[in-house]
Amino acid sequence: MKKVNMETILLVAVMFVFGISISIQIKSSDPNNLFVTLSSIKELGYQIDSAEIEVKKLEELVLEKKKDIVKYEGAMSSNGKAIESLIQEEHDKLKLIAGMQDVKGPGIIVSLKDGERELEDGEDPNDILVHDRDVLEIVNDLKVAGAEAISINGERVISTSEIKCAGPTITINSSTYGQPFVINAIGEPAHLEAAMRAPDSYAYILKEVWGLDVKIAAADEINIAKYSGELNFRYVKEGE
User: Fold this and answer.
1) For the domain bounded by 103-224, which CATH number is listed?
2) What is the dihedral of CA 151, 135, 113, 110, to 10 degrees?
3) Which residues lie in coiled coils (predicted)?
4) Residue 33 pLDDT exceeds 60
5) Which member of 75, 138, 147, 232 has the lowest number of beta carbons within 10 Å of its beta carbon?
6) In the predicted model, what is the mean pLDDT of the chain?
7) Number of Cα atoms under 13 Å in the Cβ half of residue 197
8) Are strands 103-113 and 213-224 parallel, antiparallel or unpaired?
């Protein structure tokens, strides 16, 4: 049943591309559209390119799902140990995604501390202090750059992690820490470091514009511990 659904989605995507090509022909034959601007042609070209990219993604998804089906069918046709192994594999994968497993890998380390420069006349002292928003923005930039696991002062960042100021300290996962705030991120070191050092990045602005103490270093191996707190969901329920 899953196989049929994925191929149906792919067919719809292909028909979408076909529909765009038909619309181009209709426009070119319409007396009211004898003069087609270059920008409109480019726009249609972009739409077709975008549709073709979506089709390619769907093709890859169909291939991936077909492989999953073969894997599941193979496990079902063999003994119980194969099914057990498959379930364990999926379980470990979910734990990894949820942050419930210790991980290691290459990445970068970002350290944040209050700035020590002299204040300008009338400047707010808060300008050279590290705030919760600063840490949050750095974390978000790392995620966008492809970080696969992140920790702050040893606390694993998961979907429910809070980052908030508590005076000169920051609280995360209900634990409070003082400076320096050390953010470990596992991912492609070059990509992560480039995201932090780019002239328009938040880390760059904190250091070069506001004068905060920001240190960035790549590492061949970073160890990040699993989330050790409790997960209490009051409102989220399993969907049907």
Assistant:
1) 3.30.70.1880
2) 50
3) 41-75
4) no
5) 232
6) 83
7) 12
8) antiparallel
Angle, nearest 10°, between helix axes 189-197 and 132-144? 130
Other Cβ atoms within 10 Å of 107 Cβ, number: 27
d(CA 84, CA 101): 20
Distances (CA, A) of 14 to 3, 34, 48, 58: 17, 28, 11, 10
Report how far residue 23's alpha carbon sits from residue 37's, in angstroms, rounded to the nearest whole number: 16
Give the chain's length: 240
Question: Which H or E element spans position 222?
Answer: strand 213-224
Residue 29 or residue 62, greater confidence: 62
pLDDT band at 3 (very low <50, low <70, confident <90, very high): very low
Q: What's the pLDDT tens digit per position in 180-192?
A: 999 999 999 999 9
